[in-house]
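sanity check this:
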Amino acid sequence: MLQLDINHYMFPIIDVRGNIEHDLESGRGLDIETTVFGDFNQENCEIVVGLNIETKENQSHECYEIEIHCLGFFNVKFDEGEDDFETEEAKELAIVNAAQILYGLARDTTHTVTSKGPWGAIVLPTAYFSPKDIHKRP
C-alpha cells in the first residue's frame, strides 16, 4: 500500500466565463473534458500530477465556459518493506489517486468561482480516472 502526501498544489489557469447567450430552459449542466498527466522522481519518491478540465468546444448552450489547470506535488510513502515503485502499475495507480485528489480541489474551486457568476454555482460532475486516462506531460 502507498500513501500520498500533497506538498503543494496550484492553479496556473482558472478561466471561468459566463455565457451571456445561455438559455435557462436548456439546463445548467456542463459537458467537460479532462486530461491527466504525471511525472516521477524515483530517487525522492515524488510525483508531479497535472489535471486540465475544460468545457467541450462549440457548446454554446453551456452556462459557463471553463478552463482550469491544476498542478499537484506529492510525496509517496510505502508500507514497511516496500521502498519504491516496483511496477509500472504502482506508478499509474499513484498518478490516478493523485488526479482524484486534484479533481476534488478543482470541483470546489469551480463551485466557489461560479457562485458569484451570472448563472449561479456549478458543481463539476464526479469523475473516475483509470491508468488509461494518463497522458504524456505536455
The mean pLDDT is 84. The longest strand covers residues 2-18. The longest helix spans residues 88-114.
